[in-house]
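Re-running tRNA (guanine(10)-N(2))-dimethyltransferase to confirm reproducibility after the cluster update. Everything else is unchanged from the original entry.
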Amino acid sequence: MKLLFELSGEDEILSKAEVFSSFDEYKVILDFKTALVLDLKQDEYTTKYKRKFQYLGLTKYVSEVLAITELDKDDIIKQAIKIKLDDEDKNKNLSLRVRCKKVEKSDKICLELERRVGRIFKNKGFKINLTNPDIEIRIILCKNKAIIGRKITSYEDLEKISYKDLPFFYPGIIKPKYSRVFVNLCALKEGEILLDPMCGTGSMLIEGILMNLKAIGSDIRKKVVKGAIQNLNFVSNIGRVLQPKYHFIVADSRYLPFKDKTIDGVVVDMPYGRSSPIFGKSMKELYQKSLEELYRVSRGRCVIVSRDNISDLAESIGFKRVGYYEQRVHGSLVRKILVVSPSL
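Result of re-run:
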């Protein structure tokens, strides 16, 4: 089946990498600035995928593609008439609305398309509801194509955790949506083990348990580990996670107490030497020994966020580079995001 991903537009490269990490096999059909259409091997999305889509940090909407047309008003209308939703024969009382959006410069036809396509589905027997419909048809106008889709889910459907409500705070916390991005780049499946060896307040692991991953957090600072436990306990007690599984220990990332190749994925935000202290002889030594340990214990992807580009060091240890991205935070601070996998 074909799926449309409407990206947030904050970071085009990183947002697409996050989507690609969600699937083992896919084919890119269309790739615009903030619109991405993939052809997936499976015939239909499942409830599990619907939940996974909600946790894409840099994607606003995910829709099932119903038609792809030329950027021509009459052609869009003709294709809309041909569309037959499964629900037509099942329930004539379902409500529907049409939303149109321009990705790049195009004719100003959105409002007209919303009205005309809405009228088409009204004639098919659906009730028009502009506030809380059962079905949302989305028309995305790109540079030279129009995509008609049926919304599966969106960022609005996600019940977000307010980080302001967490009992433990520490300076330098990553925004939740980017924590989600970094966890998604690990490409883990539900029930697999996610490790954050410098867990801080536990923000990465909070997103991990919300995605039904088994979370392991460690940090060299005992006070911080206690705070992270408080935060995950808080999230677990508000009912967002059915069966939260997490464990924390006080440990040095240079000497991890785990057996070889027992961790499915790793996400770590290395200290920058500003609000977070650097333990060990130097940053160079911290990078070297921590990466050696991650290579030893991991059997899947590692997402390493740092102030420096450590790609060469990671590859010298034996990692294979999957992706590398840069993200400006503020001032002179640029996050270097390295995605690697062990050469098994």
